[in-house]
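Changelog excerpt

This revision adds worked examples to the README so contributors can see how folded entries look when concatenated. The first example is reproduced verbatim below.
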Amino acid sequence: MKHTFSMNLGWDGGRNDVGTLEAERLKTQISIPPEMDGPGVGTNPDEMLLGAAATCYIITLAAVLGRSDLTHRGITIDAEGIVDVTNGIFTYETIRYATTIQVPAEMTDREITLVERIAKKAKDQCMISRALAGNVAFELNTVISRKSGNDFI
């Protein structure tokens, strides 16, 4: 089975102008980010690549935890993309995830070790990570927090 995803993009000006991007569930303006001397309107390819990788990872992580019958009470990820500019050539170099997984207070140490392993495995199973493999490095820092009700232990 194959799935097709489509988008329509428009760009009427030069380097520092603003374009449009529209997909079935996404509509936004696009431009070069201010860090790269652009107008910074809407989103940009760097944010979108980071967003694609991070959303794929968090969804894959939640799915693998669910298939493993491991309960979590929330997952948060602070994602960071590092772009190197050398001799005017832009290279997406590294994606870093600082992942926090909240688990029930009664989770055993063995189960926590399994959650940590799954966090690493999910990064490698995500289709976006696989598409970028060999071109972009991935770094993962995972913190497991035991949570009871609204309090952390």
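The second example, added in the same revision:
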Amino acid sequence: MTASPDADGEAVKTKRQPIVSADPPPTDERVGASKNTARRSSNISNSTIEGSDRTIDEINRDEIMAAIRDVFKSGESLDPDTAITDIARVLGFRRTGARIHEALCSALRTAIRRHIINRDKGVIALECATIDDYTRDELIGTLLAAMGTTWWDREDAIRTAAHRLGFRRTGSQIRKAFKSAINGAIRRGLLEYDDHIIRRSR
């Protein structure tokens, strides 16, 4: 990991490429399984496993990102099929049919692009466990992707961006990190503001 000064004279970590502002369309890949080296997560609370009356298409992507964090928060590595089964259970599905499997495969790819998880040698593990594991450039990219082109109250923008990264709650550390990202984006001309509201620069 190296650090280099950005346009504002502040050091920015460059261990990863910044998160892109839009997710590319999912491909039809299926990640390989390596069950001999993976361990099944035992840290899923039974209280989150309930019967669901929803279809997978009725669950928004950010809620699935949060479920992915729930599955991997213990720090264990899982093969993709085991991960998909556990994520489906957190979302309330007792069975994992073809449609759910396909949707969660796509969600795992999204979570990898957002640096929530990573995949290495056939197994998946948590990449950024806390907000401090993200670089400021990654947080700026997340904000821009979450906000679209409309005006946002700053606190609402922070909550939406945090949910995009799978965080269910926005505690003081998350707010502090995103406030710094907002200020950095304003200085770089990526965001414009009017008092407490912000939007992407045109």
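Reviewer comment on example two: The longest strand covers residues 117-120. Helices lie at 61-72, 80-90, 98-113, 136-147, 154-164, 172-187.
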